[in-house]
Design goal:
This protein has two domains: about 80 residues, no CATH class; about 160 residues, no CATH class. Helix content is about 60%, strand content about 0%. It has 13 helices and two strands, in the order βααβααααααααααα. Strands 1-2 form a two-stranded antiparallel sheet. The longest helix is centred in the last third of the chain and has 25 residues. About 0% of the residues have low confidence.
Length: about 280
């Protein structure tokens, strides 16, 4: 199988019509868009072998360069190598590269926020899950609970869940067609917690934890695709249960992986009795 050293990789990208140079190659490898191949020793006193990239990494590079024409942000481009690893495996993108790509994505995500994590979670709930007719009082109460928790209050999951329920729980006369929708308040809160936990410690997850998160994602995606046609029939929340296409799966690869890193970490904390405040 063909391999490419640094100079050859740059030349191949330029021959394909892209503006690319050695400096950008190093930057992208540092950020996880490309791999940083290991350089094995050549024996005592002979130094290390030069880094070489396999054909799969050249094809990844060309895909990234095409996408870069319309998606210039490095953090957003990180979804591409993560998606390749998530759905096609380590042969194309190694786990060590995904760890760096996730750190790049998480850094952009944190910097893009104009408010803190808890407030963003509140905004997301208000925007996506509030049922028609919800009072301003209920909306404000949920927001204040989240903000207080982020400011240092003792984390009380039940208190937060009680504040969220009025926003998303339909009235009796408008009950969801699918019973699964009744559990949306707790399910959504669990996702928010998992994502916040994971993004604050993205640099601490091991390769083993990454692979476990990938396996969990595959299992949950398969279960969701089986249930999706039924969930989509719900008159109030059906719009939340779309059937993702390949582009959607790629665009949310980092978020999905982050979610399962966090969910797995939550389960481990529960089993060991170590409960963390995800909003701090």
């Amino acid at each position: 199988m063909a391999t490419y050293d640094r100079r050859q990789l740059v030349e191949e990208a330029q021959k394909a019509g892209f503006e690319f140079n050695d400096r950008l190659l190093v930057d992208w490898a540092d950020r996880g868009l490309l791999d940083r191949p290991p350089r094995p020793g050549q024996g005592r006193g002979k130094g290390r072998s030069p880094a070489v990239w396999p054909e799969e990494q050249l094809q990844l590079l060309l895909l990234l360069l095409r996408k870069r024409r319309t998606v210039p942000r490095t953090g957003t481009l990180a979804n591409i190598p993560v998606a390749v690893w998530l759905y096609w495996g380590d042969r194309h993108v190694p786990t060590r590269q995904v760890q760096r790509a996730m750190a790049t994505w998480a850094e952009q995500h944190r910097k893009a926020r104009s408010w803190n994590a808890a407030e963003q979670a509140a905004r997301s709930i208000l925007d996506d899950f509030t049922r028609p007719g919800t009072s301003r009082r209920d909306r404000r109460r949920a927001f204040e609970v989240l903000r207080a928790l982020s400011g240092g209050d003792t984390y009380d999951r039940q208190k937060l869940l009680d504040a969220l329920r009025p926003l998303v729980t339909p009235k009796a006369e408008a009950a969801p067609a699918n019973p699964a929708a009744v559990d949306l308040p707790e399910a959504y809160l669990t996702l928010v917690e998992a994502r916040l936990l994971a993004i604050h410690q993205i640099d601490k997850f091991t390769e083993k934890e990454y692979r476990a998160a990938r396996a969990t994602h595959h299992a949950n995606l398969a279960a969701y695709l089986r249930a999706q046609p039924s969930l989509a029939l719900d008159p109030q929340f059906g719009h939340l249960f779309d059937q993702p296409d390949l582009e959607q799966l790629v665009n949310r690869a980092c978020l999905d992986l982050l979610t399962h890193l966090g969910l797995n970490h939550q389960r481990e904390n529960v089993s060991t009795g170590n409960h963390q405040n995800p909003l701090k």
